[in-house]
Amino acid sequence: MKRLASLLFVSVFAGAFTLGAYKFFFEKNNFTIISQENGNSNGVFNTNYTPTSANGSGINEVDFTMAAENTVNAVVHVMNITLSKGPTSILDFFYGSSGSPVPQLGTGSGVIISSDGYIVTNNHVISRANQLQVTLNNNKTYNAELIGADPNSDIALIKIDTDEKLPYLAFGDSDQTKIGEWVLAVGNPFNLTSTVTAGIISAKARNLGKNQSFIQTDAAVNPGNSGGALVNTNGDLVGINTAITSQTGSYVGYSFAVPSNIAKKVIQDILEYGNVQKGFMGISPAPTNTRDAIEKGINNIDGVYIELIEEESAAQQAGIEIGDIIKKVDEIVVHKYPDLTGYLSTKRPGDTLSFVIDRNNELLNILLTLKERQSLVVPEMGLEVKNLTEHDKKVYKTKTGVKIIGVPERYRGYGLSEKVIIKIDDIEIGNIDDAYNAFGGISKYSKTVITMLGSNGERDRLIFQ
Asked: d(Cα 307, Cα 285) in Å, to the nearest integer?
């Protein structure tokens, strides 16, 4: 018994001695300091050992299947039939005859947003259409009616009539989307119905030269995807796919979508008012990437530097000044102008917003109530006009009319600057909306008489043909 106890003791002692020797002589210490008050001056860097693989981290892989299944049934194929009257023979070409109408077919996508058949798509998908047809994912085809459209946001609303309850998508909050978040693009590229592609949100508030704010994604979008859905992994609609930037016209790595908050607001306006209600601040930002901007340091500003404020605008009435820098509006941090315009596109006249303004390195909180637009460019002649201020009414001795504040180069010699238009032919002009409609009705084949007032109240007439 004593011999057995001795052998056991020797075995335990030998094992402990061997383990200790291994630990001391062979095993390297494997540790890293992950925080250090004095920075990295000693060559020790912060390190995170969390696995980048979802499997290694214990997090479930992203599952697109439910979002894709719900979305494909709510995305439709939109066919735009346009009648074109071009020459059909050599005699038509030489003698100017228009020939017989020739149908032309355009295609795109749309998203069902209600069970009774309302569908949102792009304006460019349905513009100039003589007939619209919609094909559902179950291959049923219906004629569609145009309810309304907004070319500025490139959003249109159409409707089909059906007795069955249709699958539809709920609008998500595009302001809450994050860069790097997974999204799906669903549509009908190249007439391939119910196509799903995946990617991430690459950027937000992208400006493509349209004073618009787009979501940029690397989900593959091609011709035919226009008007289709951009959804998050919950299947919520966060954007309407609308554009690609490519020399070939096909996908090259990134595409753009109208944020859902903008699309939703446009659709609500069309249904409630018949047109889009736009709230305006009445400011102009300083242009960037110019010599003057570089010299003044405006290019390096984080925010929107205000260079111009319109008279009697919402900004002027709120106490905003030239040189102020907009840093935040409500809960939206403003880094650049599209951040601001994108948020304003979701608001209407009369909405009150909270702004954080940097004025001479002091942060101010200012409440601003948006107003209706006070200026615009009229069709046909391209004049920029604005509503009259109280000061203008006294100077020009009139209570109605619109003031010309911008003249295209081809009309510079006609003496139009700073004149007030009070009548187009026999149509009285009371505000910019009247002017827009009157100029839009000008015929290219007849003369138009424009009645104007000068600063001394003198009346002029311009015959435009």
From this structure: 5
Q: What are phi and psi of 239, to 5 degrees?
A: -170, 160
Active site residues: 124, 154, 226
What average pLDDT does the segment 156-169 reach? Answer: 95
Q: With helix as H, strand as E and coil as C, how does 40-56 read? A: CCCCCCCCCCCCCCHHH
pTM metric for this prediction: 0.75
Q: Rounded to 5 degrees, what angle do the CA atoms 245, 342, 246 make? A: 0
8 A C-beta contact, residue 205 and residue 103:
no
Phi, psi of 200 (to 5 degrees): -120, 165
213 close to 260: Cβ distance less than 8 angstroms: no
Q: Which of 431, 436, 429 is nearest to 451 (CA)?
A: 429
State both tokens at 292.
């003057």
**Contact in structure between 185 and 221 (CB atoms under 8 Å):** yes
C-alpha separations of 438 from 379, 404, 461 in Å: 9, 15, 16
How confident is the model over 39-74, as pLDDT tens digits?
Answer: 444 455 555 555 544 444 444 577 889 899 989 999
**C-alpha distances in Å from residue 100, one per residue of 72, 82, 92, 96, 115:** 39, 13, 10, 13, 40
Burial tier of 409 (Cβ tally within 10 Å: 0-12, 13-18, 19+)? exposed
DSSP three-state, residue 384? strand
Inter-residue contact 164 to 207 (CB < 8 Å): no
Contact criterion met (CB below 8 Å) for 111 and 228: yes
pLDDT of 21: 58
- Measured between alpha carbons, how far is residue 153 from residues 26, 113, 177, 209, 320 in Å? 68, 18, 19, 12, 27
For 121-157, what is each residue's pLDDT tens digit? 999 999 888 899 999 999 999 999 999 999 888 999 9
Most confident of 91-100, 216-225, 237-246: 216-225
